[in-house]
Amino acid sequence: MRPHDFLAAWESNDRRYYRQALELLSELELLCEEVKSNWPVALDDPIKNARTNYPALDQLVDKRNSTSDLVRIYAAMAVEGFLNWYGVLRLGEDVFNAHFERLNILEKLKILLLVCDSIVINNSDLLAAALKSIAESRNVLVHPKSREVYEVSSSTQKYSKIPHTARDAVKNMKLFFSEFTVAIPAAEKLIPKI
């Protein structure tokens, strides 16, 4: 088992993903305000034929939606990238890849902390709950589900609340890193920061 301050050259993008999640959230907040200020009807009302009647606004809405998705994806990438890097740091790349790399992210966290730090993490712990929330938000985007709808009125498609879902992803990303530091104080200097 390697110590938390093991010296080596590392290749990981978790710090870049962390920074990009924060920067994109700031951009998203501005885009949301711009969409609201250009919305031609009451904010709760949809626009009919937006692509034809309001093409510039339609493009702005698409950019806002894409930016919201990117915030959620980058927050998940920051956390998962960090967890993978932490495993390689503590166990070495060969051991990590052979036994941990393919685990789902919550199991990876639990087993890594048990093996590396003798810490038992339960699903109800804030660290696990934040990680689960981030993973679920990402999975909705990168593993989209389809279902048959026989009547248009019976559709139960859920849309992400923008910017709230992205804010939650960043909040949970920060909570994950904060709780990781609480659980493993020796890892504090490893945590991405701006």
Question: What do these coordinates show?
Answer:
By secondary structure, the protein is mainly α. It has one domain (14-143, 158-190). Helices cover 63% and strands 0% of the residues. It is built from 7 helices and no strands. It has helices spanning 14-38, 50-53, 55-91, 93-99, 105-117, 126-142, 164-183. α1 packs antiparallel against α3 (55-91), α1 packs antiparallel against α7 and α3 (55-91) packs across α4. It is elongated. The two termini are 29 Å apart. The model has no long low-confidence stretch (mean pLDDT 90).
Question: What characteristics describe this protein?
Answer:
194 residues; mainly alpha; 7 helices; elongated
Q: What is the total domain count? A: 1
Helix percentage: 55-70%
C-alpha termini separation: 29 Å
What low-confidence regions span 5 or more consecutive residues with pLDDT below 50? Answer: none
Radius of gyration: 20 Å
In oligomeric terms, what are we looking at? single chain
Please tell me what the overall shape is. elongated
Largest sheet: none
Question: What do the pLDDT scores average to?
Answer: 90
Secondary-structure element pattern, one letter each = HHHHHHH
